[in-house]
């Protein structure tokens, strides 16, 4: 299940994809430390075709 880290800075918004929740939360913490704001982790439930 993919996890997306969404964040904003003065120039715009970035969206990063991570494969695990732990990796997404670590990147979100890194972005907050770098000064990004409105940082959130979004889970996308992707249905796979059979």
Characterise this structure:
The chain has 50 residues and is an alpha+beta fold. The protein has one domain (3-43). 26% of the residues lie in helices and 38% in strands. It has a three-stranded antiparallel sheet with strand order 2-1-3, covered by helices on one side. The radius of gyration is 12 Å and the shape is globular. The two termini are 16 Å apart.
Average pLDDT taken over every residue: 91
How many separate structural domains?
1
Q: Report the order of strands and helices.
A: EEHE
Largest sheet: number of strands, sense, barrel closure:
3 strands, antiparallel
Strand order of the largest sheet: 2-1-3
Gyration radius (Cα, Å) is: 12 Å
Number of helices: 1
Strand tally: 3
Spans of at least 5 consecutive residues with low confidence: none
Offer a few descriptive terms.
50 residues; alpha+beta; 3-stranded antiparallel sheet; 3 strands
